[in-house]
Amino acid sequence: MQRLLLTLLLLPGLGLAQGTGALSLLEAESLWRERSRELRLADAAVMGASADVKAAGQRPNPDISLNALSISPWSGYGSGGWKDKKMDTQLRLDQLIERGGKRDLRVRGAEARLDAARFDSDETARQQLGALRYAYFNLLLAQEKSKLARETAELYGKSADAGKLRQKAGDIAPVDLSRLQIDKARADSEARQAQTELEQAQVALAYLIGSEAAPARLVASDNWPTLEEPALNQAVLDGRPDIEAARRRLVAAEADRDLARARKNRDVTVGVQYEHNLQNAPTNSYGFGVSVPLFIWHEYEGEIARAEADFDVARLQYEQQQAQGMGQVGQARNALLSARDRYRRLESGLLTDAERVAKAAEFAYTKGAMGLMDLLDARRTLRQIQVEAATARADYAKALSDWQLQAEFRKLK
Length: 413
Prior knowledge:
By secondary structure, this protein is of the alpha+beta class. The protein is 66% helix and 10% strand. A 4-stranded antiparallel β-sheet has the order 2-3-5-6, with no helix packed on it. A two-stranded parallel sheet has the order 1-4.
């Protein structure tokens, strides 16, 4: 009994996990966070950048070498074990010592790139969340348009059937029946097109939430966002993920430039050796050596110039990202204001008036007080305004989402 109760309690969650049935926007966002491939790719990039930080902080490993010297085939190798052979054996250990703070500069650049990767991950989440909301609202709009198209097709179908009866009774002319049948065919075609758009919207949302195996079962269950008055002050760009990522890349480019300049400081290789001599007189000896590079042909001028150019590019890209961010915020604000005004205009009475006129036209036509052409015009007007109102709701929902994502810089994953 307990197992049965537990199964019944888990069924809604299992259905949601499979991407079936009614789906709210919050549930879609939850599935997106769990299954988004783009988020996983962004996280993998962060892991790679973290590994780069570890690699940048590692000191150079020492080199060990074993050499056999003074081997003469004329005097022979001698008998006995390896240590008794007539040859000189040399064991040497070399260690590179970096100068000029190169290791610290590598770490600083790698840490800045790690921070940039993290902000890139946040920016990916911000953009993908916007895409998810767009897909959800597109599905909601497609559902509404498909419903309107089906209702319109059914209405024209009933009118065409009634028209056939009335034409037989001599109440309408054959040309009026032809007009009804033409409008019915047009309505059927629009219903098929609306169904195709609905299926495409389901596929788009299914990919984002990882339910592409059964997209046809997805149904957006939320209502449209209600009209509200969001704060529309110009958002501050400090903290925005894409701009912060560009800032960190500028820091990394500066560290790379300083690292290129630091290559002028000669690194030193220090070595110690032990030599076991058996070719002539058996002796053991020790040695010590230091080596430094000679800057004869170049002093890394090309590498330094390249790093300087990369730093300038990073600085310009940071400035470009700031300018684009300001423009995007302004565009989102204007789009929200425009969508809000259009939504309010349609909902404030235009849609109600069209419905009332269409209802009156239907009644008048049944009583013979209105001609067929006037009835068809009233139906088309209502259909057009209904679709326009649904589109206005979707545009407002998308514009509100865009503004929220422009103005909010919290971590979205």
